[in-house]
Amino acid sequence: MKKSLIIINIVLFLSGFIHLSAQIVTNLSIVASGKQLFIFWPASDSNYVLQKATSVNSSNWTVVASGSPLIGICTTNTLASQFFQLYMKTNIPVATAQIPGGTFTMGDTLDDEGDATPVSATVSSFYIDINLVSYGQWLMVYNWASSHGYGFVDSGSGKATNYPVESVDWYDAVKWSNARSQQAGLTPVYYSDAGMSQVYTNGEITPYVKWAANGYRLPTEAEWEMAARSGVNGQRFPWGDTISDLVNANYYGYPAFLLYDIGPSGFTSFFSTGTVPFTSPEGFYPANSFGLYDMAGNVNEWCWDWYGTPYAGGTNPEGPANGTYRVMRGGDWQHSAQSARCACRGSNDPTFATSTIGFRCVKAP
After folding, report:
1. Could you read off the pLDDT of 59-85 as tens digits, one per residue?
2. pLDDT tens per residue across span 339-350
3. pLDDT tens digit string along 95-133?
4. Does domain 95-365 have CATH number 3.90.1150.30?
5. Distance CA 215, CA 177 (A)
6. CA geometry: angle at 223 spanning 220 and 228, to 5°?
7. Secondary structure in 3-state letters for 50-86
8. Torsion of CA 344, 349, 350, 351, to 10 degrees
9. What pLDDT, on the 0 to 100 scale, is given for residue 311?
10. Is the pTM of this model over 0.85?
């Protein structure tokens, strides 16, 4: 991964003045007018991505603009210091968070879930993407994989590079995880044969899993729920027991029918413009206590497990040995807050791809 080409620290003083300091290694200009800041870079550099963070040493850089030579940033007197860096798209760092190992209560009885009877589960420590796999990230790996012997059924879709990829089926998400591992020089997790000698790259089969490998994979259902709950058992959502699409997550509001949905009604007004899907960009809503974004709403997330009831507890459960549908978790922009609850279990045919389903990856420490 190449070092960033530019870092800009924006410090706002109470007087309203903007102090800019920049180490410029590429042709880039900054124009400030009042409290509006514009950052320009050459049109020929459209493969760069502008990111921001609150610390230069942050592990959570959020994409501000991609593929455009102009970005306008509105500033105020109360805005904290911000750092900006320009990366080539082929070298975008993907932030992960380490989830500590431990025991938690999987499921709850808050809303009479018929398939989420609480059970004790122990999960080993793992890393997880703090954001859903973005469309830009998907394309980088997809393009590499397509020229290295991989075959995909779906090409994936997304509103922009910093929005979640969607319309990807379970098999392609698994193969993409393998390609991401190989591109990063890690050992793939999924194989076409029991001897673990043929990396799974083509077709739609149930792969063999090398759980001890250090590559990327889909989370188990237990890992996903542990990460979503972020250390707190028994609450409806990652942050508490009520939800609002103005504050917490991107979902379809039904406050008239769900007492814990405090509205407003319908699609979130932030993103229900133009054509569907009404997905939201990475980092728009607050992260949970583990620093993970969109663990409720936006798009559903494929998990490894076959769907089955009741779900298993115990140590590092991997779900049923076989089944018909694969588990999805988290809810999405088109469905109600009921689907966004930590205990809600969705499922679908692993060949199904639609604008309400995406994924994120995990890996061993």
Report:
1. 455 655 544 455 555 545 555 666 666
2. 999 999 999 999
3. 899 999 999 999 999 998 889 999 999 999 999 999 999
4. no
5. 8
6. 125
7. EEEECCCCCCCCEEEEECCCEEEEECCCCCCCEEEEE
8. -140
9. 87
10. no
pLDDT of res. 87 = 55
CA atoms within 13 A on the CB side of 327: 28
Q: Tokens 């988290």 belong to which residue?
A: 330
CA neighbours within 13 Å on the CB side: how many for 90?
6
In angstroms, the first-to-last Cα distance of the chain is 20
What residues does each domain of the chain span? 6-91, 95-365
CA atoms within 13 A on the CB side of 16: 4
Amino acid at 96: T
Pair type for strands 357-358 and 300-306: parallel
Tokens for 289, please give them.
């206590």
Largest CA distance in the chain: 67
Q: In the CATH scheme, what architecture does the domain 6-91 have?
A: Sandwich (2.60)
Secondary structure (3-state) at 228: helix
The answer to whether residue 336 scores a pLDDT higher than 90 is yes
Contact indicator for 310, 115 with CB cutoff of 8 Å? yes
Alpha helices (H) in the chain, listed in sequence order: 135-146, 170-183, 221-229
Q: Which tokens hold the place of 176? A: 């993409």
Of the candidates 287, 230, 296, 237, the residue with the CA atom closest to the CA atom of residue 268: 296
Q: Which two tokens stand for residue 321?
A: 């040995």
Burial 245-267 (b: 16+ CB within 10 A, else e): beebbbbbbebeebebbbeeeeb
Among 56-65, 220-229, 231-240, 350-359, the range scoring the smallest mean pLDDT is: 56-65
